[in-house]
Design a protein that fits this description.
heterotrimer, A alpha/beta (436), B mainly alpha (115), C mainly alpha (308), A: 436 residues, alpha/beta, Rossmann fold, 2 domains, five-stranded parallel beta sheet, 35% helix, C: 308 residues, mainly alpha, oxidoreductase activity, acting on NAD(P)H (chain A), NiFe-Hase_large (chain A), NAD binding (chain A), Respiratory-chain NADH dehydrogenase, subunit (chain A)
Chain lengths: 436, 115, 308
């Protein structure tokens, strides 16, 4: 039969997966990005499997339901270290990372071959608002406007534009927490006029970041500087991967991921930096926008602050780092472009430090506070969430600039739990607050 | 004959395109309302998306009209160019020079910026 | 008579469009694989499997789309690609549509492509698709002039706006050497008209797929097909006007054209994978302030060269 022949062929395609990231789900995303059997897509409309990676806090379950219901049929769901939503009792939950890729491929195949039905709809089939109004299209109301055709009012909230003061319609919507270009978990209410951000209000901070366990150890005991610096370089490479993906440079992004995976003190990033500079990543894609002032830079801390010219780095207080000749690298402008230059400079510096430290087997001398790749972790005070700064930074930016700025900033708090050493071992005790 | 061929090609392509979309689209019923909401990563919009959109490159589109008018003169000019020789070259050169000054002026005025 | 002037050219164009779109998908995958973005399965089967999957997926609907425009936009885009390819001469006699004004008709294809792509994004009635649509208009209105000046440049030595004449005028020397600025500028136009790679402002990652973000199933297949077909049509035109079309020793004319089209496609797809997406504002400024004056220079160069 023609249909079954079509479906058999369809089952052989690489699985289009839409990832909805929960807490620490981004680690799994990076594994999947390198998986040849899986293709990560940016919209649920383009997916055959919805992957929920990591626990989702209960207050975001409503949003997860909405995303779930936006995947066109037929599709399957897969839950990686996450409890399936109510109503999806038969959904597959996977905890072992090694099994995930095969499970995704199997899920796609089963749906295509009809061995498994499509995931059911979770939300009732109702328009967002009861349809009111007069006339064929329900526009009704006063004059042309006023009703709720198809359950939604028309855009007619006039605002003066931030840039040129023209009074035109604006669009208000809530974005996230599963929008792939935003940090996982971040939710914001956005008002646009044209493609320019008029207001940006963060409603839910991004999930806390999982740092490598070595940064936690460094607060208890002296650790090898080589190991610490490699972990730092890896962290920045992961951020760069996201930035490159957003800029449409997927092939270079995967190169960066592979580099992060096989990082040694002898790795180099000069070639990568030259390549990015030559293809116009810094000049034509990234703009000199979203510059931080000193106060904002201080609030965020870490590489973002150093990109704005503040030479604060806890490593300069460590005698052994000073012996290795450490001085903080800085940029001056503090904008999106400068932050990416800074990220590459820090990777370069970390690798250089790791090379020297590995040769002499140097350990950290300070204990108690550590400079994490997110920012300084002083006695008992982890780097805190700074996503509220976006509310000041983003208004006035074009949509693409705004998202590029978010990708270049690292704003989430640092989680109290380290990231699993690799995603190879399942977490034994999931953090209580995020148990879905 | 040329235009007939072109017409047939367009017709065949239109039918082929419809054949790809039509059978499946026709068979299925409308998806549920939650599925039909625009994708915003789990968020929802307040209103429909259609609005009086703020087109920020609006001055650039006006500049384009000036150039598009020029293109109308250029098509016939291109055909007789070699025949008319250096004279045609000079005339069009002057025309382009004036327009280039226009571009520089527009650039200085920030026409190509999103405003 | 009917066979030679109607059936054969029509079949050639339709076959070239179908095989060409498939070849684009295979070639893009092979290039991606060479650049480290490997996918499981054979590159030859993957586009077919992807197409089959899109046919089985249900078509998404938004809350209140402009139905006609939304469903027709992919078809119209595909049709524009077919019109473009119909203008390409495969040999001195095998041309589907050998108009005296081929250059003008191709110009209108480019202009209408902007309309169709805008319509695809606008008619979905979704915020992100809408932004993609308006962004594309900024790009479309910027590259169209570059395209026109470059094409007028190739019409000068031919003393005609007919593609067959343009090819005939390259018998001694191809335009790619005669007008060195022309082909690079025209390739940028090609990336623009199919919003590929660095000029993918319409369906970009920061918009979760832009104009296609709400499209799934068969309409998405039609849209992807149309994009690939537009690349093929563009490469046909580029090979015709800059690489001497069917001209070449030893091999038959149509084969030469196919080889040259492949060369153009290869350049476009490589650029698509190696370059990051431009920011829209930067893109508009670049087009008007740098590339458009360069296309003036190209035109003056072409004019002087034609007179000498």
């Amino acid at each position: 039969m023609a249909v079954s022949w079509l479906r058999r062929l369809a089952a052989r395609a690489p699985v289009p997966v839409f990832p909805a990231l929960g807490v620490h789900g981004d680690a799994m995303l990076r594994e999947l990005a390198l998986d040849p059997g899986v293709e990560l897509v940016g919209s649920p409309r383009h997916a055959s499997v919805l992957l929920v990676a990591g626990g989702v806090p209960p207050d975001q379950h409503a949003a997860l339901r909405r995303v779930h219901d936006q995947v066109p049929r037929p599709f399957a769901t897969l839950w990686w270290r996450s409890e399936p939503l109510d109503g999806l009792e038969n959904a597959t939950r996977i905890d072992a990372p090694s099994a995930l890729s095969d499970a995704l491929i199997a899920a796609h195949r089963d749906v295509m071959l009809g061995r498994r039905g499509s995931s059911p709809r979770l939300l009732p089939d109702e328009p967002p608002n009861p349809w009111e109004g007069l006339g064929d299209d329900g526009h009704g109301g006063e004059g042309m406007m006023g009703g709720v055709p198809y359950g939604r009012p028309m855009a007619m909230n006039m605002h003066d534009d931030l840039r040129d003061g023209l009074t035109l319609d604006s669009l208000t919507f809530r974005l996230g927490p599963f929008f792939p270009a935003l940090p996982p978990g971040m939710q914001a209410e956005v008002t646009l006029q044209g493609d320019l951000v008029q207001t940006w209000a963060v409603q839910h901070a991004p999930y806390p970041l999982g740092l490598d366990a070595v940064f936690f150890d460094a607060r208890q005991q002296p650790v090898s500087i080589a190991e610490l610096e490699l972990a730092r370089a890896r962290y920045h490479l992961y951020r760069l991967f996201h930035g490159l993906w957003l800029a449409g440079l997927e092939s270079v992004g995967l190169h960066v991921l592979r580099l992060a995976r096989s990082l040694t003190p002898d790795s180099r990033v000069d070639g990568l930096r030259r390549r990015l500079a030559r293809c116009g990543f810094f000049d034509l894609t990234m703009t000199a926008s979203a510059a931080l002032d000193d106060e904002q830079a201080r609030q965020i801390g870490g590489p973002a602050a150093r990109a704005a010219g503040l030479a604060d780095d806890l490593r300069s207080e460590d005698a052994n780092y000073r012996r290795l000749g450490f001085t903080p690298v800085c940029q001056q402008e503090g904008n999106t472009r400068a932050r990416w230059w800074q990220a590459l400079a820090e990777i370069d510096q970390s690798l250089a430090l790791a090379r020297q430290a590995a040769a002499r087997d140097v350990q950290t001398s300070e204990v108690g506070s550590v400079e994490t790749p997110r920012g300084p972790w002083r006695e008992g005070q982890r780097p805190q969430d700074a996503s509220h700064l976006l509310d000041e930074l983003l208004p006035g930016l074009e949509w693409g600039e705004a998202l590029a700025a978010i990708a270049s900033l690292d704003l989430a708090a640092v989680s109290e739990w380290p990231l699993d050493a690799s995603v190879a071992e399942p977490r034994t005790t999931p953090p209580e607050e995020y148990r879905a | 004959m040329e235009l007939l061929t072109l017409f047939i090609i367009m017709l065949v392509i239109l039918c082929a395109g419809l054949a790809v979309q039509w059978p499946t689209v026709r068979r299925q019923s409308l998806p549920t309302y939650p599925q039909r909401a625009p994708f915003l990563g789990g968020g929802l919009p307040d209103t429909h998306a259609w609005n009086r959109y703020h087109v920020r490159y609006y001055p650039m589109t006006l500049l384009l009209i000036a150039f598009e008018m020029e293109m109308m003169f250029m098509y016939p000019w291109a055909v007789v160019f070699v025949e008319k020789g250096m004279m045609a070259m000079m005339e069009m050169g002057m025309f382009l020079a004036i327009l280039s000054v226009g571009i520089v002026y527009a650039w200085r005025e920030g026409v190509f910026r999103w405003q | 008579m009917i066979w030679e002037q109607l059936v054969l050219p029509t079949l050639t164009v339709l076959l070239a469009l179908g095989i060409g779109a498939y070849a684009v998908a295979v070639l893009d995958r092979l290039i991606a694989g060479a650049l480290g973005l490997s996918r499981a399965g054979s590159a030859w089967l993957a586009p077919l499997a992807r197409g089959a999957w899109l046919l089985t997926q249900s078509a998404n609907v938004t809350e209140a789309p402009d139905w006609q425009a939304w469903r027709l936009a992919p078809l119209l885009y595909l049709m524009l690609a077919a019109v473009g390819l119909a203008l390409v001469p495969w040999s001195a006699s095998l041309v589907a549509t050998d108009l005296a004004t081929s250059v003008v008709l191709w110009g209108s294809v480019e202009a209408l492509a902007t309309v169709v792509i805008f319509l695809h994004g606008w008619s979905a009635n979704a915020p992100l698709a809408l932004i993609g649509a308006y962004r594309y208009v900024a790009l479309g209105l910027s590259y169209i002039l570059i395209s026109m000046f470059v094409l007028i440049g190739v019409a000068l030595p031919a003393e005609s706006l007919q593609f067959t004449q343009v090819v005939a005028s390259q018998a001694e020397l191809w335009n790619v050497i005669r007008q060195p600025l022309g082909l690079p500028l025209f390739l940028i136009v090609g990336l623009g008209v199919s919003f590929w790679g660095p000029l993918n402002l319409a369906d970009s990652t920061d918009l979760a797929g832009g104009t296609a973000s709400e499209v799934s199933g068969p309409p998405r297949l039609a849209w992807n097909l149309a994009r690939a077909a537009m690349l093929v049509a563009f490469s046909g035109v580029a090979a015709t006007v800059f690489l001497g079309g069917w001209l070449g020793p030893w091999l038959p004319g149509p084969l030469w054209l196919v080889l040259k089209m492949f060369a153009v496609l290869l350049a476009l797809l490589l650029a698509g994978r190696l370059l990051p997406r431009l920011s829209p504002e930067r893109c508009v400024t670049l087009m008007w302030v740098v590339l458009l004056p360069l296309s003036f220079v190209d035109l003056v160069w072409a004019g002087l060269e034609a007179l000498l």
